[in-house]
Amino acid sequence: MIDEQTPAAGTTGLKASLSTSVARWLRRPRSRRELIDRLFAVQSLFALVVVFVAAVIASPTRGGENLFLSTGNLGNIVRAVSEIGIIAIGMTFVVLLGGIDLSVGAILGLSAVGTATLMVDSGYGILPAVLAVLAIGAVFGALQGYATARLGIQSFIVTLAGLQVARGLARIWSGGLGIPIAYGDGPKEAPPAFEILNGSINGVVPVPAVLFIAIGVAAVVVLRTTAFSRHVYAIGGNEKAARLSGVPVTRVKVAVFAIAGLLAAVAGIVHAGQLNQGSPNDGAGYELDAIAAVVIGGTSLSGGSGSMGGTLAGALLLGILNNILALNNIDANVQLLIKGLVIVAAAGLQKLHRSVV
Fold this sequence. Notes:
The protein has helices at 10-26, 32-41, 43-58, 71-96, 104-121, 126-150, 155-174, 207-225, 227-237, 239-244, 249-275, 286-296, 308-327, 332-356; strands at residues 61-62, 65-66, 179-180, 200-201, 205-206, 277-278. The strands form three sheets. The chain has a two-stranded antiparallel sheet with strand order 1-2. Strands 3-6 form a two-stranded antiparallel sheet.
């Protein structure tokens, strides 16, 4: 039966996990399989370093300055990555479970509309509006998880339907139009403090990037130190065996999809703050970029294998790739082609890994 004892809390459990990982890496590989596993465990980090170095080399210069390495450009990269990265964190839990969530981009759009509407049209303060939107995202995701777990419907189908429902709700809520966010103390203006999401700390680190990093660190801790994460991996590896071992499969699935919906709502709030508006069309295609980040990060689409660190590296890799292609004025269609090849290569590496071991 799967051990459900609560691991050491907080930093103690994380330190123990990290110490074990370091000790494993320092020890000489005992077999060819272990060596291959170690190499594939860092494939996303290695790919990130390679892409970063290639971007530095390929970057155009202006006045002798490398444009890619400029403080403003690096800030733009992490700002652009933040929304996709936050969604990808939730998507990682879903994929580890052996599922997929196609609704997260639409939930982002619904959340952006909800944020703008509640603050501008309904006169809500920041905290009530944010809590309401987060609740909507979490409940929406939980309902999808319940349909998947309890009714036995494939997550692909459930979330495809969820995508349509979320888009429809966003259009009904907004009247099919974008809701601009103006700041001030007037009846149709949002509290000025919400504009912080469009700002930076010391003019260098974008606030959305700080949120992305904080959520990413928390997710890493959860996956490394909690019984919940062991249940997620167990279900993704073999759902029937996990159920027979006493894992509360339904509860875990509902919780995982609720987390994905919650984080999509967080990304929607960030999106509204960055663009100063909420539109029912916001977030279109974001689910695909999030899935790409997860796949590039080494998480198996069949479930049961992967890491949150890999997803974070995958999201940053995509952001750097998009940025350097744009800096070099590469045609948008060619950019899509290159991104597609990168995703196929990452999936191919996963297949190679499984066939070798």
